[in-house]
Structures are given as C-alpha cells and as structure tokens.
Design brief:
Layout (H helix, E strand, L loop, with lengths): L5 E2 L5 E2 L12 E2 L5 E3 L8 E7 L10 H6 L9 H6 L8 E3 L5 E3 L5 E3 L6 E2 L2 E2 L5 E7 L8 H17 L4 E4 H4 L13 H8 L4 E5 L2 E5 L6
Parallel strand pairs: 3-7, 5-11, 5-12, 6-11
Antiparallel strand pairs: 1-2, 4-8, 6-7, 9-10, 12-14, 13-14
Helix pairs in contact: 3-5
Bound molecules: zinc ion (ZN).
Length: about 210
C-alpha cells in the first residue's frame, strides 16, 4: 500500500500527498487538553497506548468525549470514575483503521502522566502519543497495524524518533497498555528494516538508535 499520509511542518496529519483532502481525510477534533512543549524540545519518543470506552466496547464516541472533556458521568458507571480527567493523545486509531487527531504534534498532549524513559521524566514533553482502540485482552486488527505503521513512517520522516515504547514501559507501576495482545514483532516488521525490536524489563519495544548516528 502506498503511503499517502504525511505530517505537515506544524504537526498535522494529512492523508493526501497533493494537498487535496479526500473523503478519507484524517478527522481533526481539537482537544483542549494540551499545551506548549518546553522550548527547544526535540520529539524523540513514540508512545503506544490502548483505550476503549466503555472498557472493552468499540466503535462509540467515548474516547472523543473524554479527550474533549465532554464525557457524561451518568452515561456509564465507569465514566463517573474518569469524567474529571484532563487527558488527550495526538492520535486515535479505530478498529477499522480510521484515524483521528486531537492535538497537533507540535504541541504537548497529555497521554503519559507520571512517566520516565531512559532516566528522563515527563515523557509528554518529548513524545507523541498514539491510542489504539482496543484493550489488554483483545487482539488488534490488521487495519490498525497497517495504519499505525504508515503513521509511524510519516512521523519518523518529520521527527527524529529514537524509540517506540508502550505506556507500560514509561509508567510500569501504573499502566499495562498496549498490553500482551499488541504484537511488537508484527509492528516492527511493518515499520521496516531499521526498526529493531529489543527489550526493557522483559517487555519488547522498538528502537532506531543503531540507525541514528
Ligand atoms: Zn495509556
């Protein structure tokens, strides 16, 4: 599949290489849950998550509502426990591969929380967050891997991404996503030859450090 997605200089994903937005255009829904990255920050990290709202249910608007502070606590018992959260991610990839953007990559999305990677805390500062619609006990779809890999290639063309990790890597005591059903091997193979699968605390992740000199 030809990768016709690209990231603009201001960090917006477009799915056309000729500037004409097609019917498949990436939907941008602005989340208020973002702010400026610290001055001079280079984006070097990609963080993969899973999310579904209500948990384990796919296809609804819960994630969009959460990221835009419109989740109605009375709609579901779980919503009542999270409705005050101010969170976001840059991207959300649905089960059928449909991709939504909530925060321009140039800005800091609020997806990582308390976090640390390679002795550096506050991973939101220097990362891009991608949420896959899913859960810790469901395999992800082929369409999601295809789109995720294409998006990763676009992001690498714009930013010097050195590592791709799961939320579990950067917040191991709090988070388990993207979970045991996420295939780092399948993802690495789709991303390409420079994507090297390695391990941290027995958890696989992807690094490009050997290719960056
Ligand atoms: Zn997460």
């Amino acid at each position: 599949m030809k990768n016709i997605m690209r990231i603009t200089a201001d960090g917006m994903l477009q799915d056309s290489d000729n500037g004409i937005r097609s019917a498949r255009s990436i939907q941008f829904i602005a989340s208020p849950n973002c702010d400026e990255r610290p001055e001079g920050t280079t984006i070097t990290l990609l963080v993969i998550h899973n999310i579904s709202l209500p948990p384990g249910e796919f296809g609804g608007n819960g994630v969009t509502e959460l990221f835009t502070n419109r989740l109605q606590p009375e709609k579901h018992p779980y919503y009542a426990t999270i409705s005050g959260l101010k969170v976001s991610s840059h991207f959300f990839i649905r089960r059928d591969g449909e991709t939504m953007q909530f925060v321009p990559c140039s800005l800091r999305a609020w997806h990582a929380g308390l976090s640390c990677w390679r002795n550096r805390t506050r991973c939101n500062d220097f990362s891009i967050g991608i949420e896959l619609e899913g859960s810790d006990d469901t395999p992800f779809t082929d369409a999601q891997y295809t789109v995720l890999a294409a998006l990763t290639q676009c992001l690498r063309a714009q930013y010097p991404i050195a590592d791709i990790v799961g939320h579990n890597h950067i917040a191991p005591e709090r988070k388990t996503d993207p979970g045991p059903y996420f295939s780092w091997r399948a993802y690495a193979e789709l991303v390409g030859t420079k994507a090297c699968m390695t391990q941290y605390a027995d958890q696989p992740y992807i690094t490009f450090r050997h290719a960056i000199t």
